[in-house]
Amino acid sequence: MKYTVVLPAAGSGKRMKADKNKLLLELFDKPIFIYTLEVFQRDPNCEGIWLAVKEEERSLMEDFVKEYGITKVAGFAVGGAERQDSVRACLKMIPACDVLLVHDAARPFIDAEVILHLAKEAAASGAAIAGVRVKDTIKKAESGFITETVERGKLWIIQTPQAFRYSLIKEAAAAAYEAGFLGTDEAMLVERLGHPVKIVESNYENVKMTTPDDLIYGKAILESRRQ
Ligand code: C5P
Predict the structure, then answer these.
(1) Which of 14, 107, 165, 166 keeps 20 to 30 A from 126, CA to CA?
(2) What's the sign of the alpha-carbon dihedral 177, 93, 10, 121?
(3) Strand order of the sheet with strand 3-8?
């Protein structure tokens, strides 16, 4: 199933405690976002990559894209203050296609099989998102005391990619913008229209490089894949 992918890459390094965009940090010898790009470069189903970047980092990122031979980048958009703004900036530029994926550039270990599964499900039902089952016991707490233990069997940790029919995500993003609704993922924009969203089981390696300990985990994943 062919698809186009949007990679929001216009974040900061705040939680990573880095003085620059965390995506420019290197895992061994390569910037994080290049690992992510390489997954889509290699995937024959990926027809084009759109990157949301910070204006001031655009030329640096463009240089890396060239240096690492990433030829599928179809365009760059200038990202916004929130992740949703960055995705929206790309959505405004992308020509119509069948299936559109949104994937955090900060998740470099995404599996090609999960991508394919998501694209197929989105083509069939409109929207499909990656997730993994919660392993730990989850409780709610207020003022330092437990108020509820949540039933774990129904809980999922949501990741990206999130895959959609192009027309559906365009409609959902436009409606959210009009209503001033800010979601923490794209699926929320679709959910609020009452459209079903399918969950596709992913894996725990598809971690988002967010805090310094994630870099240690990221290196361990790369080392295990090299063996
Ligand atoms: O900050 P966080 O890691 O949750 O961001 C997820 C992805 O969204 C990252 O790839 C980051 O670069 C991107 N992002 C963005 N624009 C923002 C904030 C985050 O493109 N304003």
Answers:
(1) 107
(2) positive
(3) 73-78, 46-53, 3-8, 99-102, 156-165, 127-133, 198-201
CA 207, 90, 80 angle in degrees (round to 5)? Answer: 75
Rounded Cα distance, 85 and 212, in Å: 25
- For the entire predicted model, the pTM comes to 0.97
From 86, 101, 214, give the residue whose CB has the most ligand 1 atoms within 8 Å, as the site to mutate. Answer: 86
The hierarchical CATH code for the domain 3-129+160-199 is 3.90.550.10
Å from CA of 143 to ligand 1 middle: 30
pLDDT digits (tens, 9 = 90+) for 72-122: 999 999 999 999 999 999 999 999 999 999 999 999 999 999 999 999 999
Of 14, 22, 57, 83, the residue with max ligand 1 atoms within 8 A of its CB, to mutate for a pocket test, comes to 83
What's residue 78's pLDDT? 98
Report the distance separating Cα 51 and Cα 90, nearest Å.
7
Residues in the chain: 227
209 lines ligand 1 (CB under 6 A): no
Q: Is the pLDDT of residue 227 over 90?
A: no
Q: In this structure, how many other beta carbons lie within 10 angstroms of the beta carbon of residue 168?
A: 18
Query: How many whole angstroms separate alpha carbon 48 and alpha carbon 2?
Result: 10
pLDDT band at 154 (very low <50, low <70, confident <90, very high): very high
pLDDT by residue (tens digit) across 159-172? 999 999 999 999 99
**Using one digit for the tens of pLDDT, what is the confidence trace for 37-66?**
999 999 999 999 999 999 999 999 999 999
